[in-house]
Amino acid sequence: MKIRSATIADYDSLVALDTIAAGDPERRDHIRAWIETGCCYVAETDKSVGAYGVLAYHFFGNGFIEMVMVGAQFRRQGLGMALVEHFKSICATPKIFTSTNQSNRQMQQLLSGAGFHTSGYIDNLDENDPEIVFCFRAA
Fold first, then answer.
1. Are the C-beta atoms of residues 115 and 127 closer than 8 Å to each other?
2. pLDDT at position 138, please?
3. Which of 99, 85, 25 is closest to 51 using CA atoms?
4. Is 4 in contact with 46 (CB distance < 8 Å)?
5. CB–CB of 95/133 below 8 Å?
6. Please, are residues 75 and 63 in contact by the beta-carbon 8 Å criterion?
7. Which stretches of the chain are assigned E, i.e. beta strand?
8. CB neighbours (10 Å) of residue 106?
9. Where do runs of H (alpha helix) occur along the chain?
10. What is the set of domains in the chain, with CATH numbers?
11. pLDDT by residue (tens digit) across 29-70?
């Protein structure tokens, strides 16, 4: 497995593996913007892009993992964890945050396994599915 910065040549692969992008032009625009601003990374296996993630610094000046998306056929292979660990290793701030819906148990398990701790909740983003905020503090 290899993690590298995404390039515009990866755009179609990222859209194809993203479960929301097919029906959401706004998500496709986000993917293009993440690539163009250099905050998007891909995880490759055997030269295939299997996952992507986004690390930004818009959350009160801290690192924030804005997205981790693993293609359906690449799940349970460690790509999501590899991206999160990569972000922890390159984050320019001592704290890194992320969030996921309360219904997303797989992401919660991944974050727990990566050493993240619950930091709070945000209601009213998605109806009846609070957002859980997580934090990791570098040693």
1. no
2. 80
3. 85
4. no
5. no
6. no
7. 2-5, 40-45, 48-59, 62-70, 95-101, 117-122, 131-137
8. 12
9. 11-17, 25-37, 79-90, 105-113
10. 2-137 (3.40.630.30)
11. 999 999 999 999 999 998 889 999 999 999 999 999 999 999
